[in-house]
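Internal tracking record. Fields below are filled automatically when a chain is submitted to the structure queue. Please do not edit lines marked as system-generated. If the sequence contains nonstandard residues, flag them in the REMARKS field before resubmitting.
Queue: standard
Priority: normal
Entity type: single polypeptide chain
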Amino acid sequence: MHPDPQHNPGARDPRQPGPPATFPPPAGPGYIPQQHGYGGPPPGFSMPTVSPGIGSSPAGFGDRFLAYLIDSLLLGLVSLILACPIMIFTLILPAARANEVERFDPGVIVSFLVGYAAIFVLQFGLAYLYLVEYQLRTGQTVGKRTMSLRVLPVRPDRPLDRAMLVRRWLVQFVAGGFVPFFAWVDGLWQLWDQPLQQTLHDKAAETLVAKVVQ
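SYSTEM-GENERATED OUTPUT FOLLOWS
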């Protein structure tokens, strides 16, 4: 005797033909169940896009280090060229005159101090013009452009502005020049920062450096 299907309202009568029941396939070797939201970026974060047709992802340590070397060599060369007249008139010529008269001249010490101060101000001024004003135009320095890198705001709804780049310059160049070992900590911070691989001057400015593909 077959069971009466009316005892279970809505159930299909097993005596009537119908499609066979389907079940999920058994899990085989290497099967990984799908998990949503695992290993992704934090809530609310979306990687900024530079412009239509150009993708971006956080720049690696090697690319950023090479860009830093290129920029440092460029800044150093320009600083040396501009500092040569200062060194000649405040350091070399006063020392030569003091050697000719073979007597100590207090003016030589004053000239030395003025020369060193002028070179110091020159270096900081050039770094500001290069890392803030020049970089503000496209988010790139010569080194970053060579390595296809660009400075971007963390928040994609905000444009890169002068205030962000000034904070980057203050932390990277000024604090790095006065606080012992800070420049090392700042640069190496990227190695363990996730998911944006930021340095400390990135965090202070709320920016990141992205590898852009054009």
